[in-house]
Write a structure and sequence with these properties.
- The chain is α/β, with parallel strands linked by helices.
- It folds into three domains: 9-21 and 199-302, Rossmann fold, CATH 3.40.50.2300; 62-195, no CATH class; 309-495, no CATH class.
- The protein contains 18 helices and eleven strands.
- The strands form three sheets. The chain has a seven-stranded mixed beta sheet with strand order 1-3-2-4-5-7-6, with helices on both faces. Strands 8-9 form a two-stranded antiparallel sheet. A two-stranded parallel ribbon has the order 10-11.
- Strand 6 (292-294) and strand 7 form a beta hairpin.
- Helix 1 (26-46) runs parallel beside helix 10 (263-270).
- The protein starts with 8 loop residues before the first strand and ends with a helix.
């Protein structure tokens, strides 16, 4: 579809043949979205999509290969500069393994830091500052790994100075020079993308007075950016994006976000259209940290998917690491609780219940049975109360200390749950919450947890909408350190009986 590129177009100038300016039927949009997803899945199965597209959807980016090549070049170049052609006699195989392992560790650190996620074309933060911290972590991990493997090799009778012939000065060079190449690769990729796809096409969204100010800033300061259209009503946005082939949406009237969230934002995210909201004086009181600049104006990137795929995978990795570290205590507590439950409650020992997990799919959550076997014999779900008569008296302290939740470690191992995350609810309850609470489904972005931010700050009967606030705050601020903090504070909450 071709458009007049001489200036921004208003939605009401496009004509009814191009776009319906009325409120779009979100049910039809969702049906179309589902149809597109099914088409992509069919194409993946039959191999209809181009090879590069298929690789991208599986998480492999060409820029990753460029980063790997740069890291390998830095390692080999450092050895050549220092030793010339007379390298220390470790053997070619040892050098090859050392370089490959180092390259994979550094690339993995960049991946977990989100450097291979799709980034919007506007207001992207500088790459070099983002690449330095994971490079530092990767260098430290390689130095530690070298010490561990070298010590283990000597224990088994192998005499070697280093298991990986990668001296510390060489790691320092790689740590400092590697991110420079990573940033250069992103710059080249951005130039190639602009050459192949053209400049970003913006849709400015807001009140007329806000549009006028924003237009002046973008035209004056944002080079290589094209204002393709403007929309001065929230219900015009989706149609304008489709009609004008928009790549980025800038919301310059912050109050309009209430009209666009969550349905319209979800549709735009699925269509790979970036949405940014201008930061006004009111938003600065939220303590925003990740502010982007477009045309001299501050914006924040809006993402329906709060945790990127790379961070979700990193979370899964840290779950397994923490579980391995805690396994002696977990196994001891499981054994004690199992024996006690068999004595006071008898069989069946375990209780399985359908809960809603990641992506809104259901799974069978397991826990120790603490209620009478006839607790729901009428088949109707019933919420537990503080003094529920269905609870076996000798099992009340087991519930109070959350020992009945320990078997869910099995769900964590299977990947159905996480150590920390939003608590899983029953489908009968989630259907009601989704209708009453906007954005409730966002808590399905990650697997549910054994414990969570809502559990250490709230109470058992805290309103679901308030719990959602805690859950979304956790998604936005997730880190391995936050998970560890929540796990430790959960122990205190349980011991203090503050549930």
């Amino acid at each position: 579809m071709s458009h007049d590129t001489s200036g921004p177009q208003r939605v009401d100038d496009l004509g009814t043949s191009d776009v319906d300016t009325g409120e779009l039927d979100l049910a039809e949009l969702e049906a179309a979205r589902r149809e597109q997803i099914d088409a992509v899945e069919r194409a993946l199965i039959t191999g209809e999509l181009p090879l590069l597209t298929r690789l991208n959807r599986r998480g492999l980016r060409l820029v990753q290969l460029a980063d790997m090549g740069w890291l390998m070049a830095v390692m080999v170049g450092t050895m050549l500069v220092r030793f010339g052609g007379q390298w220390p006699h470790y053997g070619k195989d040892t050098y090859a393994v050392s370089f490959v392992v180092t390259m994979l560790v550094f690339t993995g650190a960049f991946y977990f830091a989100g450097l291979y996620e799709r980034d919007p074309r506007l207001g992207s933060p500088p790459v070099l500052p983002r690449a330095l911290p994971p490079a530092l972590g990767a260098a430290g991990l390689m130095a530690l790994l070298n010490l561990i493997v070298t010590g283990a090799a000597r224990e088994f009778g192998y005499t070697t100075n280093r298991a990986f012939p990668m001296p510390v000065p060489h790691l320092v060079v790689l740590m400092l020079v590697g991110p420079v190449g990573v940033a250069a690769n992103r710059w080249i990729a951005k130039k190639l993308r602009t050459r192949n796809a053209g400049p970003p096409r913006l849709l400015l969204v807001g009140r007329p007075e806000d549009l006028e100010v924003a237009r002046g800033h973008v035209e004056e300061a944002a080079r290589g950016v094209q204002i393709a259209g403007e929309a001065d009503a929230p219900d015009e946005v989706l149609g304008a994006v489709h009609a004008l082939e928009i790549t980025d949406v800038l919301i310059v009237t912050s109050e309009w976000l209430d009209d666009l969230y969550p349905e319209a934002i979800d549709v735009l995210e699925f269509a790979n259209v970036s949405v940014l909201q201008r930061v006004s004086a009111k938003e600065t009181m939220f303590g925003l940290e990740r502010v982007r600049e477009v045309g001299g104006m501050p914006f924040v990137l809006l993402r329906p998917q709060t945790i990127a795929t790379s961070r979700a995978n990193f979370k899964r990795f840290t779950d397994l690491v923490y579980l391995l570290m805690l396994s002696p205590f977990v196994l001891a507590a499981l054994g004690f609780a199992a024996v006690y439950q068999l004595v006071v409650a008898g069989r069946p020992l375990l209780f399985w219940q359908t809960r809603v997990g990641e992506g809104g799919s259901t799974f069978q959550m397991v826990k120790f049975r603490t209620m009478d076997v006839r607790a729901e014999e009428d088949g109707n779900p019933q919420l537990a109360t503080h003094d529920d008569p269905r609870i076996i008296p000798a099992c009340r302290w087991v519930r109070a200390t959350r020992l009945d939740e320990l078997p869910q470690v099995w769900n964590v191992l299977k990947g159905e749950m996480s150590l920390v995350g939003p608590r899983p609810e029953r489908p009968e309850l989630t259907r009601e919450f989704e209708q009453q609470i906007p954005g409730y489904s966002r808590r399905y972005e990650i697997p549910p947890g054994l414990t969570g931010l809502a559990q250490i700050h709230g109470r058992y009967h805290t309103d679901p909408e308030y719990k959602l606030g805690y859950d979304l705050q956790y998604l936005v601020n997730w880190s391995p350190v936050l998970d560890l903090e929540i796990l430790l504070r959960t122990v205190w909450v349980v011991l203090a009986r503050r549930i």
